[in-house]
Amino acid sequence: MAGVRALGVLSRVTSRRYALFTGGTCRTFSVAPAMLAQTHVSYEVKGDVAVVRINDPNSKVNTLSIQMQKEMAEVMDEVWANDAVKSAVLISSKPGCFIAGADINMIQSCNSADEVTTLSQEGQKMFERIEKSPKPIVAAINGSCLGGGLEFAIACQYRIATKSKKTVLGTPEVMLGLLPGAGGTQRLPKMVGLPSAFDMMLTGRNIRADKAKKMGLVNQLVDPLGPGLKSPEERTIDYLEEVAIEYARGIVNKKIPIRKEKGRMEKIQDYVMSFEFVRNQIYKTVHSKVMKQSKGLYPAPLKIIECVKTGVEQGPVAGYLSESQNFGQLARTSESGALIGLYHGQVACKKNHYGVPQREVKTLAILGAGLMGAGVAQVTVDKGVHTVLKDTTVSGLARGEQQVYKGLNDKTKKRNITSFQRDSILSGLTGQLDYSGFEKVDMVIEAVFEDIHIKHAVLKEVEAVVSPHCIFASNTSALPIKDIAAASKRPDKVIGMHYFSPVDKMQLLEIITTDQTSKDTTASAVAVGLKQGKVIIVVGDGPGFYTTRCLAPMLAEAVRVLQEGVDPKKLDALTTSFGFPVGAATLADEVGIDVAAHVAEDLGKAFGSRFGGGNVEVLKTMVDLGFKGRKSGKGCYIYQPGLKTKEVNPDIGDVLEQFRMTPNPAVSSDSDVQYRLVSRFVNEAVLCLQEGILKNPLEGDIGAVFGLGFPPCLGGPFRFVDSFGADKLVEKMRRFEAVYGNQFTPCQLLLDHAKDSSKKFHK
Amino acid sequence: MSSMLLSTMRGCSVSPSWAVRLGNSSLSESYCLTLLSVQTKSKKTLARPGVKNVVLVEGVRTPFLLSGTTYADLMPHDLARAALQGLLQRTGLPKDAVDYIIYGTVIQEVKTTSILRHNINQRTLGAGFSDKIPAHTVTMACISSNQAMTSGVGLIAAGQCDSIVAGGVEFMSDVPIRHSRKMRKTMLSLSRAKTLGQRLGLIGSIRMAHLSPELPAVAEFSTAETMGHSADRLAAAFGVSRVEQDEFAVRSHTLAKKAQDAGLLQDVISFKVPGRDIVSKDNGIRVSSMEQMGKLKAAFIKPHGTVTAANSSFLTDGASAVLIMSEEKALAMGYKPKAYLRDFVYVSQDPKDQLLLGPTYGTPKVLERAGLTMSDIDVFEFHEAFAGQIMANLKAMDSDWFGQTYLGKKSKVGTPPMEKFNLWGGSLSLGHPFGATGCRLVTTVAHRLQKEGGQYGLLAACAAGGQGHAMVIEAYPQ
Known about the structure:
By secondary structure, chain A is an alpha/beta fold. Chain A is about 55% helix and about 10% strand. In chain A, helix 16 links the parallel strand 11 and strand 12 (about 385-390).
C-alpha cells in the first residue's frame, strides 16, 4: 500500500519535471531522493521558488501530525540548503483545507503534562525557524487554516488567502480546553493587536478571508476561480500557487513590502497600547468578561490571558515558556478531556451510520407553521430542498413564513448571504393551507399541537394524499412514536424527529425509531437532518425518549427547590455556576411552563413516583394564571420586549406560598441543591442506556450537551460519571434518597460502575 | 414530423453541392482552391421552405466616441436620432414605409424613459419618422440591439410586419445618478404631505446619509461583481496570460486602424454635433506597442490581475440602426439587400463564473441549428468585451474537457481561425456602446461577406446576466 503511494508521488514528480523541461524553466534536480520517503510533504522548484506542498494521504484534511512535522522539517532543511532557491511557497494540495490544526490524537496519546509541553516546544522551535527563515516563505491558504495551521501561517513572512467561503482562519483551541501552543499566543497579539488577538483566541471563532485581510491577518486575497480548463477547485489552487510564486519573487526583489504601511488608526492604537496601564486595563476587562461568562469553570481562557500577558510584559522567552507549560497543563485537565470528547462525539454524530437512503428527499413538507415548524422550514429551505409549509389558518401561516423570512434576512444583514441568495432561497418555500401537491412530497414532518388525537388525525390525512414512499416524521417532544404510529397504515415509514427550539440555533436533532421503523426510513431521516446541519443522535422509543426524559426529573426537582423557598434567581445562579449555560428557571420559561406541565404529567403517569418531586399543580396553577413562560411574557420571570434584564415575576411568590414545602437542612446547602438537580438528570440518562433507549454513552453525552445544555466542561452525563466517580455520585444520591425516597434511587448500571471503579463509560 | 421533413431537406441539399464539386474538380489548381472553399459548404443556402427570408437592407452607425469627448453635451436621444436620420438618408426610405421601430438601450435615461412613448418619440419623430409608426425599447444588456433586430426578424417571419427599423444607443457621458432610496422615499412622501407641519417633519428627517447618491455600476445584480473583475477571473480560470491579452488588444487596434484607413467601415455616418464639428470617425482606435501595453497596472484585481484599461473595451457613446425587411418587400421597393439574417440563438449560463462565455455556448448551438460546421463560416465577428474574455472563449472552444463537461459535447467545439476573425477591429478598438454594438456586428458581417466574398458569417456576443447570443448571416447573392 505504502509502496503504491510512494510510486504515485514519484510519478507525479516525474511528470511535473517533464513539463518543466519543455517549458524551458531552469531548476535543480536534487530533490528526487528525498521524495521517496516523504508522503505528506513534497516540494518542487519553479524557477527560484520552492513550492512546498502539504497533502496527508490518509485523511481528508491536513493535520500537523508527528509524520507531517518530521517531513516538513526535512523538506524545509532542503529548501534552505538549496542555493538555487530564493524563496518558498507553502500550499496544500487539498481543495478545502490548508492545515486544519494539530493532530488531537497526538496530544491525547501523551502520558504526562511534560510530554505535551515538549510537543509544544517542538512546535514553537519549528515555527521559530520558519519565522527567521532567510528565504521568505509565502503561505498560500485555501480552505480551513485553523489552530496549528494558523500558527504555521502567521510564522511565515507573507500570507495569501483565497476569498472563498471555505477559507476560514481561527484558533479554535479554546473550544477544546487548550490554548494555541505553537507560538500563537505570542505572535497573534503582535500581528493583529491585543483586542483582536484576545477575541480570536478566547472565542475560537472562524474568521473569513476578507475579514482576515482587514484585520491584517493575511496580506493579500485571491479570488476563487470558476471552471476553465480544469475543475474550479483544481484551477483555484493552481492559480493561488501562481500568484503566490509571483509574490514570493516580488518579496525577494523588494518590490512587495512584507509589512503594510500602518494607517493612522493603527498608529494611534499602537500609541495607546504603549501605555502599561492601558494594557493592564485590557487584561482586567478581558479577565472579568471571561469570569462572567465561564464562571471560572474553564481554565483555558484564563491561561490564554496569562500567556499573552507574560509574552507582552516580560518578553518572548518568558512568553513562549509560559505558553508551552500551560499548554501541557491544560492538555491534562478534565475540562479539556471533556471538550475533546464532545468534539469527537460531534464528528461521529455528523455521519450517517444507516447507509444511503433509497430516495433522496427533494421535497419536504412541514405541518404546522409554529415556532418549531417554521424553524425546521428555515433550516431545510436554505439547503436547497423544496419545502412546503402547511398550516390550518392564514394568520398562522403568515406568521411562520415571516419567521423564515426574518431568519434569512438576519443572515443578509450579517452579510452571510446576499439579498439575492435570500430571495432565491425563499422561492423554494411554498406556504399553503391544504394538501395540494402532497403526492410529490418525499417526507412530512409534523409539528402540530402535542395531542395524540390531533397527531392521529393529521397522520391519517397525510397518508390519504401522499405517495407510498413518503416518510412521516413527528416532531413530538414526549409522545411515544409507537402510539402515534398506531394509527398508521404503514408504520415502517413513521419516525420521530425531535428538534430543539430555536431550530436554527440548536444543533441537536434527536431521531426516534420504533421496532417497526425501517432502516431506510431511519437512513432518510438522518440524511435530512445532516443536510439541515444537525448533530444527530438516534434513540429508541419510549415516553420522553432520551432528552425529555432526562430533563423532566431535573425540572421536577427544580420545582421542588422553588417550593422549598429558593428564589428563581438563586436557582438560576446555582445551575449556571455548575456549568449549565441556562439556569433551570429560565429554561422552564424558555421551554414553556405549559409544555413543562404537560410533559411532567405525561411522564409522571408513565414512570410513576420516580418522576415526582415538585408538585405538578405548581406548574398547572401558573398556566391557569397565564404564566406560560417567555412566549406569554410572564413565567418565573417577567419579559418585556426591548428590555434585556428580567425581573422575577412577583405573583409567583403567592403560587409558591400556596404549595410551600419545608426544606430539610441536611440536603439543602447550595452544593446539595446542585447535586440534587444534576444527579436526577444523570441517573435518568444512565437508566436510558441501561434500558437500551440509548445505543451508547457517546450519543447520550452529545444529546445532553447540545440539546439540553448539560455543562460542556463536564462533557455530558456519562463523562461526568467517569470523572466525578460513580461511587461518589451514588453516595450523594443515597443521602438524598434517605430524605426524598425513590426519586434518588441509583439505577443498576450506575451501581455497577460504583462497585467497580475500573468500569468507565468512555475508555 | 416537421423536424423529420427538415432533416430530409438538409440531406438533399448536400447532394447537389457534391455534384458541383465533382464538376469543378477538373478546373485549374488556383481556381479550385477558392472555389472549393465555397463549394464544400454543408449547405448551399439556409433558405427554408415556408419560412420568410429576412434581409438586411442597410446598417449605419454614428461614429463611436470615447465617452466624455465630442458627444459630451448631448443626450442619448440626440445620438439615436442621428443614427436613424442617417439610415433614412442612406436608404432614401419613405418615412411611412416602416411598420415598426425597435430600439435597444441599457442604461436608461430617467428624463426620457419615464414615459416610454415620449422616449421613443424623442428618437423617432425627431428623426422624421411618421407618428403612425409604433415603437418600443428593448434592453438585454450588451446584446440589446441584437434583441431589437431579432425581435424584428420574428415580426417579419410571423408575417406581422414587412419592414422594421432596429437599432440601439448607449451614452456613457451622462448616466442617471439616483438619489438614495431613503431620500427618494422622503421626497415621495413630501409630495403627498398635506400640511406644513408634515412637510417640515419630513424635511427635518433628512440626514447626511440620505444625500449619498446611487451610481449605476457595470456590476451583476446577482453577484455584485463588476464585469471587469469577472473577466479577470475568467481569464485566470483559462490561464490566459497578460501578454496574450495585450497582444490580442494590439491586434484589434491594428486591424481597426487598417480598416479605418482603408475606408472599410462604411457603416459610419458623419454627424454634425450641435455646437461642435462634424464627426465622421471613431476616436478610440489607438495602436500601442506591447511595451506601452505592458506598463499599465491591473484595473480590477489589484495588483496581480491581468485585465487592464488597455485590454478592455472602453466606455463609449454611440448609436446604430439597421433596416430589415422581408426579401419580397425589399425587392419590391427596389433595394439590393446586403445579407440574409438566418438562424439565431440566445443562451444563458452561470452569471458568476461563466458570465462572459456566451460565445462559447452560443456558437455551437447556432451552428447546429443552421446545420453548418465551423469550417462553413467565412466571416467571424465576436463582440470583444475584454481581450481576456475573447481569449478565454477561444480556449474554452478549443478544450475537449470543457466541451465534454460543460457543453455536453463529445469533444471540443473548435476555434474560429484567426484569419477570419474580427478582421476590421472590434469592440476593444472601435468602442462598445452597450446598446448599439449588436447592429455594428451584423452590419460588419454583411459588409465583410460582400468584401471578402464569403457565404456564411457568424456573430457572437456575451452580455451581463451570463447571457449570450449568436447569429448566422448568409451573403445575399451578388
